[in-house]
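ZP: hey, is the 4'-deoxy-4'-aminopyridoxal-5'-phosphate complex queued? I don't see it on the tracker
AM: it wasn't, my bad. submitting now with these inputs:
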Amino acid sequence: NAPDHIKAISPYQPGKPIGELAREMGLSERDIVKLASNENPLGMSVRARDAALAALADIERYPDGNGFELKAQLCNRFGIRPEQIVLGNGSNDVLELAARAFLGAGRSAVFSEFAFAVYPLATIGVGSRCIQVPAKDFGHDLDAMAAAVEKDTRVMFIANPNNPTGTFMRGERIKGLLERVPGDVLVVLDEAYTEYLSLDQRYDSLAWLDQHPNLLVSRTFSKAYGLAGLRVGYGVGNPAVIDLMNRVRQPFNVSSVALAAAAAALQDEEFLARSAEINRRGMSQITEALAQLGLQWIPSAGNFVTFKVGDGAAVNAALLRRGVIVRPIAGYGMPEWLRVSIGLPEENARFISALREALGQS
Ligand code: PMP
């Protein structure tokens, strides 16, 4: 008999797996285009693949529970120290570790309407209260979020860019928020899509850590690095924050294969640049088509875009019948919208023609 707060949780709804649709439709998996989970259409860096395969040779051994080598690479790349890093089984794990270490009964977390679904899950899961702040133009209303902090608030989740809306805030605005939030509120800045930001959008949140020990920056290898299936992410924060998160972490939460692949992926900057470039072009391809179809979309800084179709469930069903998987976001309170991940040019073209047919515009 689970406690009421657990029974009240609505489960996370992932994108439909390719195999499931293939079985339902009697199609070959190769005929299906999945643009539903913001994955990297290029796959992963060859260096990461080689490192993952090499790590299989020692699979009978437990992984390095402290992730020495991956942390060393992260330190090298970002000019940080190992004691500032917590590794996670995907960045979802990092978000949950923050909730486990800093929330609990009698505490609350602040986050925005239309923000990433794991924030309420992580908050409710540890028996804390959610303070959901209405969005502004589908993005975070940072003034309202600062004002929403209550006496018992100990965590604030911010996604930049946000999923599923793709909305982006300039670095100065987040820095400004940090100056206003009480020091006993951990600000979890979720930068899952940060590698997709254009040069003029980029900002260095890690440089704020000295001044703001209540900041935790969360990042992932699932998106631009193309390692979603391996599950590896990291949090960077003040050593005291990281120490507490490490206490509630599973001792071997990141697999040896994931550790090795992530360390190698960090060294392949060329792959990262190529991923961002293909995303930039695919974003233009898709948004130009949305404009031609007369559809509204939310300008996105991520590797996906959310667009308005009216009846999201019906259009989603019509796309599925055409072998195209996108993401309905009714669970986010946006039943009239669908989210599509940016794919390879030919995948984007399949999506566009299926959408045209689904809307009866072919
Ligand atoms: N944060 C955001 C904003 C996301 O969109 C996602 C992936 N959907 C995650 C975190 C978690 O991704 P992962 O656990 O694969 O790192």
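AM: back. Residues 38, 90-92, 116, 159, 163, 190, 192, 220, 222, 228, 233 surround 4'-deoxy-4'-aminopyridoxal-5'-phosphate (CB under 6 Å).
ZP: great, adding it to the tracker
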